[in-house]
């Protein structure tokens, strides 16, 4: 397995920063240097110092850099689950900060940790995201952080593709990684890519090409002192050996590296597992036993390490996470308090608005009241004027006409000449007709019977008259003992019912109209019902004199219910007698 | 000789009536008043017939009828008005007037009316008599037949018989419970019953539902 040390040393000198910054940077850089030197535990303790100086609860680039380094350290400790978890936190924060190189780096560490967890599909997703966020421009070398290089992302993606049985795309991607490594002069990436070519060709069964690339990788690794990469290369060559002798030769070359240079146990163990496969193939029992022993020793060492420091580290980590979780809960609780406060203020706002609305409504109501008063005075003015004209016609004009007729009558009786008396007779008849018309007009203007006998009696008369003069049949049905109402109310009620009846006659094409008035102690219930063609109350809100009726009802504080269908219309008015003004 | 008096605020009408009676040798209009008050105080006891207008500036002829007859029990009153409505006619006749004439009456009718009332016979012009008869027939009809129910009342009566409560009826017909109550009391009033049980009884008896 190729491993990456894609680290930029952050340069302290360029940063004329605060004491706090230095307190973070110092242990952070120490951690990176120790990681470089494979001193993982030491790196971890320096990183812990950095964490103390800079809380990882914060959302800033420093916190992201610490998460990323922690993720890488967990990777080398073999705590891949923790590594992925740290990377996840870094992803969240760096996405929030919109810092593309940090996002790319975090996704990269998430990817390689997932690779080791054998989650190749999710590893691929993470690496693809890493590439997507990778900035086009060169990253400022001065920034703090173990920023990944693009060639490493590509190289790891190629390895992932290989695991996903996509050898062709693995090849294409690895070519890009190789090219980029040359362009950037990243030596380790060159040898890593060459090794990956070897692996890809091995999978494809092109063993000669595979061997060629592994040899090439060992060569470039050795010339740049990447002994771990060279060791893995020797392991592959052992595995690809055509015979036992060649296998042993390659194995010994690897062993000489192990004895000469300090190489990470991780790679050493990887070397032994690969060569073990080769020895099993060639049935080199002696070597098999030897290799197995080496692996057991390494595993014991690892277990020991795991039992001591890693366990400690992981426990510490879990403890810290727990604290973090607590802090998160606390934050949530605070947020909830803030939410409560917000809800409270919203309620207050609503209350204030409601009050404002109530006040506006009250004012509107007052305005409406005024309007009502205006309408009432208008109405009573109209009625008074009608009454005056009606009386004048009735008593004045009609009296005059009667007198004229009487005089004509006298003239006619005096006249014995029929030729002269006939026109006089005609003139008298004409005067009679004018009298009848005037009486009618006067009555329609203001039926005197309302004042004398009440509105119900006046309506009865009105209905009888209509029955005589109109083809429609009007059924007038009064029930109960009528209460004597204020004169204005009586006139208004008469007008309303008159208007409803007239509407029925004019518009409904009905055969009959039922007018029912129920007089109760406290209320009057008026029903006018016809069997006509009906109308749509929504479409004629102001037509049919309905608006006028409604205005009059308003003066009486009464409501009208209207129902209409093809089989007729129904109007019902309920008047609360106690609400009528005297 | 028949002595007549007239109360009429419109003098031109008085002139007209005088003109009509000029030829009548057995009748004489001996007193004319334009106000009720004046007439009540000054009416001569020898007056046989009073022509009385209904609308007067200081009073109403209908109620004045009683007052005159109380003071002059033998007086015969003929209402002389422009009102054609039966309620006026009925009311004034009930109050003791014997005749009822419209102001544009003719000499023949006036004379006939005077002679009739002197014999204590009621007199109404033919048109008015006809109208009163028609109306009274109509009234007999409406009280004789079962009251007609409105369509809404039919619906409500139907639901009442099916034991629905006011709230349920209101919900079904999309009206307020108050309106339902109004309909119910209308029905009780109309069908002349005392309560809801009575409504159900009448509804079933008369086949209203």
Description:
The complex is a heterodimer of chains A (582) and B (209). Chain A has helices spanning 19-36, 40-53, 61-77, 80-97, 100-116, 120-133, 150-163, 167-184, 187-204, 207-223, 227-240, 244-260, 265-281, 285-414, 418-445, 448-453, 455-469, 487-507, 546-555, and strands spanning 473-479, 512-519, 523-530, 559-565, 568-576. With 582 residues, chain A is of the alpha+beta class. In chain A, a hairpin with a 3-residue loop joins β2 and β3. The longest helix of chain A is centred in the middle third of the chain and has 130 residues, at 285-414. Chain B has helices at residues 11-21, 36-42, 61-71, 86-94, 107-118, 126-144, 151-161, 166-173, 177-190, 196-205; strands at residues 2-7, 27-33, 49-52, 55-56, 59-60, 76-81, 99-102. In chain B, β1, α1 (11-21) and β2 form a beta-alpha-beta unit. In chain B, α7 packs across α10 (196-205). Chain B is elongated. Classes of the chains: A alpha+beta (582), B alpha/beta (209).
Question: Brief description of this entry?
Answer:
The complex is a heterodimer of chains A (582) and B (209). By secondary structure, chain A is of the alpha+beta class.
């Amino acid at each position: 397995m190729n491993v990456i040390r894609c680290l930029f040393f952050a340069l302290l000198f360029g940063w004329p920063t605060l004491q706090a910054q230095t307190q973070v940077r110092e242990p952070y850089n120490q951690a990176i240097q120790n990681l470089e030197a494979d001193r993982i535990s030491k790196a971890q303790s320096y990183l812990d110092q950095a964490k103390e100086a800079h809380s990882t609860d914060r959302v800033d680039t420093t916190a992201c850099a610490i998460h990323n380094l922690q993720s890488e350290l967990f990777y080398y400790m073999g705590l891949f689950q923790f590594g992925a978890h740290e990377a996840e936190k870094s992803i969240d924060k760096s996405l929030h900060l919109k810092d593309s190189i940090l996002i790319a780096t975090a996704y990269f560490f998430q990817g390689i940790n997932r690779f080791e967890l054998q989650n190749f599909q999710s590893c691929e997703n993470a690496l693809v995201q890493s590439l997507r966020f990778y900035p086009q421009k060169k990253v400022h070398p001065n920034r703090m952080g173990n920023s990944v290089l693009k060639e490493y992302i590509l190289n790891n993606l190629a390895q992932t593709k290989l695991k996903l049985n996509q050898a062709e795309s693995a090849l294409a991607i690895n070519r890009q990684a190789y090219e980029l490594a040359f362009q950037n002069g990243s030596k380790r990436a060159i040898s890593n890519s060459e090794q990956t070519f070897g692996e890809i060709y091995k999978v494809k069964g092109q063993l000669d090409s595979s061997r060629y690339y592994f040899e090439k990788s060992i060569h470039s690794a050795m010339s740049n002192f990447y002994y771990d990469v060279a060791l893995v290369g020797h392991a592959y060559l052992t595995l690809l050996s055509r015979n036992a002798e060649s296998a042993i030769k390659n194995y010994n070359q690897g062993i000489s590296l192990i004895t000469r240079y300090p190489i990470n146990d991780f790679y050493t163990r990887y070397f032994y597992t690969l060569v073990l496969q080769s020895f099993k193939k060639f049935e080199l029992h002696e070597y098999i036993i030897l290799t197995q022993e080496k692996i057991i020793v390494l595993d014991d060492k690892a277990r020991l390490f795991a039992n001591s420091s890693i366990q400690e580290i992981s426990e510490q980590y879990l403890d810290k996470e727990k604290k973090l979780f607590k802090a998160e809960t606390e934050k949530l609780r605070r947020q909830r308090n803030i939410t409560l406060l917000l809800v409270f203020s919203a309620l207050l706002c609503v209350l204030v608005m409601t009050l404002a609305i109530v006040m506006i409504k009250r004012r509107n109501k007052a305005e409406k009241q005024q309007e009502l008063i205006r309408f009432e005075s208008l109405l009573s003015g109209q009625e008074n004027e009608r009454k005056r004209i009606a009386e004048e016609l009735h008593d004045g004009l009609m009296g005059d006409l009667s007198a004229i007729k009487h005089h004509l009558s006298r003239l006619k009786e005096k006249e014995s000449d029929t030729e002269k008396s006939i026109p006089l007779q005609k003139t008298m008849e004409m005067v009679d007709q004018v009298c009848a018309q005037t009486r009618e007009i006067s009555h329609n203007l203001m039926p005197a019977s309302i004042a004398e006998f009440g509105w119900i009696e006046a309506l009865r008369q009105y209905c009888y008259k209509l029955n005589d003069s109109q083809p429609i049949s009007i059924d007038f049905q009064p029930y109960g003992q009528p209460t004597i109402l204020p004169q204005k109310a009586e006139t208004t009620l008469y007008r309303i019912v008159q208007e409803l009846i007239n509407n029925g006659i004019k518009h409904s094409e009905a055969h009959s109209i039922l007018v029912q008035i129920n007089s109760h102690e406290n209320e009057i219930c008026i029903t006018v019902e016809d069997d006509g063609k009906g109308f749509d109350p929504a479409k004629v809100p102001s037509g049919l004199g309905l608006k006028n009726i409604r205005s009059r009802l308003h003066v009486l504080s009464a409501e009208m219910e209207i129902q209409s269908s093809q089989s007729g219309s129904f109007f019902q008015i309920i008047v609360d007698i106690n609400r009528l003004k005297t | 000789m028949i002595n007549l008096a007239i109360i009429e605020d419109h003098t031109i009408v008085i002139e007209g009536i005088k003109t009509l009676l000029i030829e009548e040798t057995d009748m004489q209009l001996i007193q004319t008043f334009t106000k009720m008050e004046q007439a009540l105080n000054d009416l001569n006891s020898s007056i046989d017939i009073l022509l009385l207008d209904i609308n007067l500036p200081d009073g109403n002829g209908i109620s004045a009828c009683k007052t005159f007859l109380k003071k002059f029990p033998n007086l015969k009153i003929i209402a002389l008005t422009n009102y054609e409505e039966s309620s006026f006619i009925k009311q004034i006749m009930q109050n003791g007037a014997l005749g009822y004439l419209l102001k544009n009456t003719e000499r023949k009718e006036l004379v006939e009316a005077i002679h009739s009332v002197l014999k204590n016979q009621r007199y109404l012009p033919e048109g008015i008599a006809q109208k009163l008869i028609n109306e009274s027939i109509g009234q007999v009809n409406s009280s004789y037949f079962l009251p007609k129910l409105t369509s809404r009342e039919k619906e409500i009566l139907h639901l009442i018989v099916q034991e629905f409560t006011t709230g349920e009826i209101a919900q079904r017909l999309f009206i307020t419970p108050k309106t339902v109550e109004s309909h119910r009391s209308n029905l009780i009033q109309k069908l002349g019953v005392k309560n809801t049980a009575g409504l159900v009884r009448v509804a079933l008896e008369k086949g209203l539902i």
